[in-house]
Each structure stands twice: as C-alpha cells, then as structure tokens.
Amino acid sequence: MAIFGITTRYVWFAVPIGGYLVGKYLDDQETLRMTNFRDKSMLYGGTVKPGDPPSWP
Predict the structure, then answer these.
(1) What Gene Ontology terms describe where this protein resides (cellular component) (predicted)?
(2) How many whole angstroms separate alpha carbon 4 and alpha carbon 46?
C-alpha cells in the first residue's frame, strides 16, 4: 500500500541513502572547519614557511 506514492520499497532505498548523504555533508563541514586550525597546533604544528604546502590536506 502506498501513501502519497511512498512505498516500503522506496523507504528501504531512500532512508539509507539519505542517511549517508547527511553524514557525508556533516563530515565535510567538520573537515572544512578543522582546516582553520591546520598547522597551528602546539603539539603537531611546526613552523611552515609561506608558500609551503600544509602538512595535511
């Protein structure tokens, strides 16, 4: 039985795909936020000369 055209087959497909996409978006946003602190940690950071590539992507 379909409610508004949504069947159980659609739900079994859409829920895992939607969860994956939301998780990937949140992970990408966290990576983008953490790039602000790249090479600035007192524990892992060093002196990076201007023009040198960062120590991690």
Answers:
(1) mitochondrion
(2) 58
Q: Give the residue from 27, 26, 7 showing the smallest Cα distance to 15.
A: 7
Name the token pair of 45. Answer: 């950071």
Q: In whole angstroms, give the CA distance from residue 37 to residue 40.
A: 5
**Are 38 and 56 contacting, i.e. CB atoms less than 8 angstroms apart?**
yes
Cβ-proximal residues to 46 (8 Å cutoff; 6+ apart), any chain: 39, 55
pTM (2 d.p.) = 0.62
> What is the DSSP code string of 17-53?
HHHHHHHHHHHHHHHHHHGGGTT--TTT---PPTTSP
